[in-house]
Amino acid sequence: MADEKVEFELVSPERLLSSEAVDMVVVPGAEGDFGVLPRHSLLISAVRTGVIQVWNGNAVTDRIFVAGGFCEVTGERCTVLAEEAVRVDDIDRNAIESELKNLREDAADAKSPEERSAVEARIATREAMLAAAG
Fold first, then answer.
1. Span 31-85, pLDDT tens digits
2. Which residue in 41, 7, 9, 34 sits closest to 23, CA to CA?
3. Which of 26, 93, 108 is nearest to 59 (CA)?
4. Which residues, listed in sequence order, are joined to residue 82 by a DSSP beta bridge?
5. Backbone angles phi, psi at 61, to 5 degrees
6. How many C-beta atoms surround the C-beta of residue 124 within 10 A?
7. What is the average per-residue pLDDT within 90-116?
8. Residues near 12 by Cβ (< 8 Å), separated by ≥ 6?
9. Order of strands across the sheet with 85-87?
10. In the chain, how many H helices and how many E strands?
11. Residues 6+ apart with CB under 8 A from 63
């Protein structure tokens, strides 16, 4: 049916970012991007760092950067529980670039391989966020 929608919810640890009926959601899954339409098969997937696209009509109406998490899909609903999420339009490039500078200094000053690895993971996420912002 042309008027069918899928309920999309995106939750981060801080807040509910989105709860709406949409035509389609494209999620950056661990094994590749996947689109969710009404009556989708049951699915649970890890979410990799990337951008969720929310479609209404023939256009992307919202883009949300996510860094990790899980997605559960049923025939009527797509729920994403993200470790970190921010609308692409809300990304503050200057703040991210400043944070990256500090993180790179932290990586250089890391006292153990584990500490360096944790900081490098944060650097990779922030670089991906900048790329998503264009």
1. 999 999 999 999 999 999 999 999 999 999 999 999 999 999 999 999 999 999 9
2. 7
3. 26
4. 69
5. -105, -15
6. 13
7. 93
8. 82, 83, 84, 85
9. 32-36, 24-29, 50-56, 59-66, 85-87
10. 2, 10
11. 51, 52, 53, 54, 87, 88, 89, 132
